[in-house]
Amino acid sequence: MKIDPTAHDLLADWLAHAERLHPKTIDMGLARVKTVADRMGLTFDCPIITVAGTNGKGSTCAMLEAILLEAGYRTGVYTSPHLVDFEERCRVRGDIVGAADLVRAFARVEAARSQNDDISLTYFEFTTLAIMQLMMDAKLDVVILEVGLGGRLDAVNIFDTDCAIITSIDLDHMELLGNTRELIGFEKAGIMRPGKPVVVSDPVPPQSVIAHAAKVGADVWTFGKDFNFSGDKQQWGWAGRGRRYAGLAYPALRGANQLMNASGVLAALTALRDLLPVTAQAVRVGLSMVELPGRFQILPGQPTLVLDVAHNPHSVAALAENLDAMGFYPCTHAVFGAMADKDVAPMLARVGPMVDKWYFTGLPTARAATAEALQSAWQASNSRQDAVSSAYKTPEFALQAAIAAADPADRIVVFGSFYTVGGILKGGLPRLFAKHLNA
After folding, report:
1. How far apart are CA 41 and CA 128, in angstroms?
2. What are phi and psi of 344, to 5 degrees?
3. pLDDT tens digits for range 110-146
4. 148 neighbors 175 (Cβ within 8 angstroms)
5. Residue by residue, what is the 3-state secondary structure of 364-376?
6. Which of 36-40, 178-182, 313-317 holds the top average pLDDT?
């Protein structure tokens, strides 16, 4: 199909077009996307940092960006998925890109895709190429790429990284990546390149990750051997190959797991210090100012509202630990929505002991589990006789019910899919919750 530029001059039109191009939502492989990228002449003449992992990728990218911006570099960041608006997937020099810039980039992809023959691209591949075009045109000093799924066959892996980061690895997307940590680790390890550093911030990485680093000749940095951190309630410190940071304030992103992510970031910047030197002051200020919505985000006011995109057993375990560290609340209300392919039983079991009232929600995608299915899964394993649950069509309706039932001293936790938290941020939160903030 050829695009009429006058009919498709809006971002929403292009995104709808991208959704129709390929018969599969996910089609792992690099051949098609690489062909179109070559036609477009997509290359970067600056260092590239590629981040893969099950959890912690977004936080890692945000910390890298904050420090490098503070150090004076022109940064470009590509992350996915978005919470509210598609434009969030790309930030250039710290700012979310504009729809008009994306529309121009989409037109470049379409021209290359349909040149001579129509190459079928998935939504993710089509939009990734557009964002790469936009960042290439921006004349950047450093590019930070978050892997969408896996690593070895993910669209961003058509670019050779100057430093790979592999965050925590756990069981997720098993139908595509494998049903063990070893198989999943192998897919993540595919972003490594010969002679280039790879920072493994998972404290107990699968052996497949270490083996692949040795096979390709990557310079592997492992937690506990090549870098480590220590800390108390007031401050923390980091030590790695030839560099130390002492007396650091805790990262602005909340949660105990963020120290592990920050440690990987400092290891990567140390590994790249000849290409991208940063000062200790840039590290301190960057970590103190980093922002990322939806990662154990606590909104002030009464009742307390917590937003977290924890959507697999590993990330929900971290959420549970962080909730426990918040202290006592008379009643905890939980709004939860998830994709149908998620293993929700261990997630519900892990956080269940601290949740008094559940508000299960459907989500605006065919891939989502229904609210009733989630409620049934909870009922099958619930061991608390005093806990109650209800089901709602949308996150907004679920939050509305939670607000109506909550007392000022209570806590409301919204977690699960990006669609769950994004639905609250887009439609429900500003209107429904604003009157409670700073009450």
Report:
1. 14
2. -80, -25
3. 999 988 778 889 999 999 999 999 999 999 999 999 9
4. no
5. CCCCECCHHHHHH
6. 36-40
User: Range with the lowest mean pLDDT among 117-121, 174-178, 287-291, 380-384?
Assistant: 174-178
Count CA atoms closer than 13 A to 218's CA, side-chain side.
27
Report the alpha-carbon distance of residue 390 to residue 357 in Å, rounded.
8
CA–CA separation, 411 vs 304, rounded Å?
Answer: 5
Domains of the chain: 11-289 (3.40.1190.10), 297-436 (3.90.190.20)
Buried b vs exposed e over 347-383: b needs ≥16 C-beta within 10 Å? bbbbbbebbbbbbbbbbeeeebbbbebbbebbeeebe
**Residue 223's beta-bridge partner residues?**
227
Nearest Cα residue to 152 out of 27, 22, 24, 30? 30
pLDDT tens, position by position, 180-214: 888 888 888 999 999 999 999 999 999 999 999 99
Interior/surface letters 28-60, b for 16+ CB within 10 angstroms, e for the rest: eebebbbbbbebbebebebbbbbbbbbbbbbbb
Q: For residue 2, how far is the Cα from the chain centroid?
A: 33
The closest of 401, 395, 402 to 426, measured between CA atoms, is: 395
Work out the pLDDT band at 233, boundaries 50, 70, 90. Answer: confident
- Whole-angstrom CA distances from 204 to 158, 201, 223, 357 are 28, 9, 8, 35
pLDDT tens-place string over residues 65-91:
999 999 999 999 999 999 888 999 999
Nearest Cα to Cα of residue 254 among 308, 329, 180, 202: 308
How many Cβ atoms sit within 10 Å of the Cβ of residue 167? 27
Q: Report residue 250 as tokens.
A: 């805790």
Strand, helix or coil at 135? helix
Which region, left, alpha or beta, applies to residue 242 given φ > 0 means left and ψ of -120 to 50 means alpha?
A: left
Question: Strands across the sheet with 197-200, in order?
Answer: 95-96, 90-92, 75-78, 142-146, 48-52, 163-166, 197-200, 219-222
Calculate the alpha carbon distances from 184 to 166, 180, 208, 254, 258 in Å. Answer: 12, 6, 9, 27, 22
For the residues of 55-112, what is the DSSP string, one character each?
A: BSHHHHHHHHHHHHHHTT--EEEE--S-SS-GGGGEEETTEEPPHHHHHHHHHHHHHH
Question: Residue 73 burial by CB count (10 A; 0-12/13-18/19+): exposed, middle or buried?
Answer: buried
